[in-house]
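Format notes (please read before filing issues)

Several people have asked whether sequences and structure tokens are stored in separate files. They are not. Every record keeps both together, in the order shown below: the sequence lines, then the token lines. Line labels are part of the format and must not be stripped during preprocessing.
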Amino acid sequence: TRGESGGSNDKANYYWWNNVLQASGGFEDVENFSWELLGCLAIAWVVVYICVFKGVESSGKAVYFTATFPYICLVILFFRAVTLPGAGDGILVYITPKFDKLLTG
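Then the structure lines:
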């Protein structure tokens, strides 16, 4: 259901329907139309159509792109994260063990 309470994952459900999908009240509510979501959906369908229309030859090329693109994004995000102010402090906190907590646990 659309972000209503009562489930075990209320916050995740609410976020999915209201922030990601930006779901409206129904077909009558055209004021909150998400053009960004329509554009992403159209691009996805165009890619699927091209892969199916061209056959196996283009599917192989599409697999090369879809297999490597996430890694390229991860590398870009990694370098962006380590260049932010205070990133060095955060990395040190992450990799420095707290022996007092290890010994009491």
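For reference, the curators noted about this record: The chain has a mean pLDDT of 82. Helices lie at 10-20, 35-54, 56-82, 87-95, 99-104.
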